[in-house]
Amino acid sequence: xxxxxxxxxxxxxxxxxxxxxxxxxxxxxxxxxxxxxxxxxxxxxxxxxxxxxxxxxxxxxxxxxxxxxxxxxxxxxxxxxxxxxxxxxxxxxxxxxxxxxxxxxxxxxxxxxxxxxxxxxxxxxxxxxxxxxxxxxxxxxxxxxxxxxxxxxxxxxxxxxxxxxxxxxxxxxxxxxxxxxxxxxxxxxxxxxxxxxxxxxxxxxxxxxxxxxxxxxxxxxxxxxxxxxxxxxxxxxxxxxxxxxxxxxxxxxxxxxxxxxxxxxxxxx
Length: 269
Fold this sequence. Notes:
Number of helices: 10
Largest sheet: 3 strands, antiparallel
Structural class: mainly alpha
Radius of gyration: 19 Å
Strand content: 5-15%
Distance between the termini: 43 Å
Mean pLDDT: 77
Number of strands: 9
Helix content: 55-70%
């Protein structure tokens, strides 16, 4: 199988659909080293290099403290106050099938959570300071444009990956936390869920909702980003998007473990 004209190496990129063990992390790390030696302009290389580096570097500190399997009674709707957590469920518990209304409710919850506005404000501030998308200009008007487009990115991606595509393809948009196994095996599991998901019937399937839905939201964003409407820019943004989503899965997987080690004021949802 090839992607973007590049033949993939099964030894690096084939992830098991069932339970993931420590070999998954070894393959991810192997891919990371392999991609550093490949052509920088390669679509596959850019995607996997950004994905593996961001996810692994984010996850390692969390895996070191991942111990115990005590379950909280309710799922926190936020992680560290600023990351939304409206679609996490325990893998070991029986969960009800989501209706289309439920899927749209998850997307609406993520899009309207105050934490999303805080993230949008932060990203807009970085864009303002670095003069990202220079056609937006500076001052209040420039910041307003950056804030609006940053929020639109979140809202549209949530709608595509959590509601529209999951409804059309009958896939479950939730992240099912594993909690059992070693920190390394759980890390591999969390990263692999970016590409593997459950269907509404409980079977495993390629995560079209996340991968294709994310690409669709990125394509839509070209309508309101006047700068950088080219292949290289879009590939770079997509790589960052995938890397962020993988790191988000890792954070969701290890949040209960991390939460027990944090001061109460930081652990509160």
